[in-house]
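Kindly review both lines to help learners:
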Amino acid sequence: MKRQEVAARIQAILDATFPDPAIPLDHRDPYTLLVAVLLSAQCTDVRVNQITPALFARAATPEAMAVVPVDEIRGIIRPCGLSPTKARNIAALSRLLVEQHGGTVPRSFAALEALPGVGHKTASVVMAQAFGVPAFPVDTHIFRCARRWGLSAGKSVDRVEEDLKGLFPKESWNRLHLQIIWFGRTYCPARGHDPGRCPVCSWNTLAGAGVEPPKEGA
């Protein structure tokens, strides 16, 4: 099968399996989503969702977070790992949102990526899931599945993102991003994967061996 044919069949399976995929990170608005995504770097979504209720009970807006001492933020988010850096970034980006953006999260890739601790993947998640702007954030699940399914041979998240954008219709990117995450967790995990029982790998002639996820920050 050709790559485009495989992609179309995978999309049909994803639409049937996860027709209305939820955003894995609990949040209330663009700001709390931004903070949650930042916290998810090298941390599971489950752990982030355990931590953010206490953090957002303390401060759920840029104005409120900007005046919380960094050490206090660090104490709350410590179970997420990398807490010193994440706490500094949360405090700093909150201040910048107040000072430069009127306390709102900007609807721009460039403006988001200019914030402390916010890389392309984090900006893409916010643009896609908070503002509905087409984007294809590539996390470890998507990187793994895209290469395992033969949709990309890219060795970087940037190349995998480029390949996926070229294979799937732009209007489906935001939904597919979430669908592949849920599918990867449920049916095509990094460890203990059984290709014969996977709804994609079981028939996909392009499918290969699993790969290591990229070592990337936000």
